């Protein structure tokens, strides 16, 4: 299982509670789309997640951004995933970023609002924020392998799945 998080905005600890904490405990991979804010938060995620992949965000300290890339690309269950905190140009810019990297899925953060958007051949995913939702629900995303790719869901920290989506591998 892949768990996707973003926008933690803390000075210490992970801010993980409820279903988010349980999901990270069960995940074989955690992808964080930036804005840990401080190095102790990044270290707490490294201590908590079995395997953490992450990018830095615009609010991360120099100590965090020195340790993380601005963008990364990885594969999970045959699905190519490109991640960045934010991309100028909105959904069009994110879709172009994904196409440049040959991605099926683009993960981003920054807005603190959970959303899934299909932009042609690229699916855009913002998991929202599990710790600092700023008017939205406290949320994260869970993606599980299927025979054809990934079945995903946006989930609240209370465990309510409020949007489901699928991404086919190529």
Please give a quick description of this structure.
This protein has 170 residues and is an alpha/beta fold.
CATH level 4 superfamily? Metallo-dependent phosphatases
Order of helices and strands: EHEHEHEEHEEEEEE
Give the overall shape, derived from the CA principal axes: globular
Q: What CATH first level would be assigned?
A: Alpha Beta
Q: Gyration radius, to the nearest Å?
A: 14 Å
Low-confidence stretches: none
Number of helices: 4
Number of domains: 1
Protein structure class: alpha/beta
Distance between the termini: 19 Å
CATH fold-level assignment: Purple Acid Phosphatase, chain A, domain 2
Query: What is the number of beta strands?
Result: 11
Tell me the strand order in the biggest sheet.
Answer: 3-2-1-9-10-11
Which bin fits the share of residues in helices?
10-25%
* CATH architecture annotation: 4-Layer Sandwich
- Strand-residue proportion: 35-45%
Can you walk through the features of this model?
The chain is an alpha/beta fold and 170 residues long. It has one domain (2-168): Purple Acid Phosphatase, chain A, domain 2. 20% of the residues lie in helices and 36% in strands. The chain is built from 4 helices and 11 strands, in the order βαβαβαββαββββββ. The protein has helices spanning 18-26, 39-48, 62-65, 90-100; strands at residues 2-5, 29-32, 52-54, 71-76, 79-84, 105-107, 114-119, 122-127, 139-145, 149-156, 161-168. The strands form 2 sheets. Strands 3-2-1-9-10-11 form a 6-stranded mixed β-sheet, covered by helices on one side. It has a 5-stranded mixed β-sheet with strand order 4-5-6-8-7, with helices on one face. A hairpin with a 2-residue loop joins strand 7 and strand 8. It is globular. The two termini are 19 Å apart.
């Amino acid at each position: 299982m892949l768990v996707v998080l973003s926008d933690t905005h803390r000075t210490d600890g992970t801010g993980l509670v409820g279903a988010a904490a349980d999901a990270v405990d069960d995940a074989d991979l955690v992808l964080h789309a930036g804005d840990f804010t401080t190095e102790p938060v990044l270290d707490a995620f490294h201590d908590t997640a079995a395997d953490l992949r992450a990018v830095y965000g615009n609010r991360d300290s120099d100590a965090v951004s020195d340790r993380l890339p601005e963008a990364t690309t990885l594969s999970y269950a045959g699905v190519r995933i490109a991640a960045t905190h934010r991309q100028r140009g909105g959904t069009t810019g994110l879709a172009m970023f994904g196409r440049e990297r040959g991605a099926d899925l683009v993960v981003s953060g920054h807005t603190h609002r959970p959303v899934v958007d299909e932009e042609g051949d690229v699916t855009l995913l913002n998991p929202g924020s599990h710790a600092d939702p700023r008017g939205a629900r406290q949320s994260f995303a869970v993606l599980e392998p299927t025979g054809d790719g990934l079945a995903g869901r946006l989930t609240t920290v209370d465990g309510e799945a409020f949007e489901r989506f699928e991404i086919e591998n190529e």
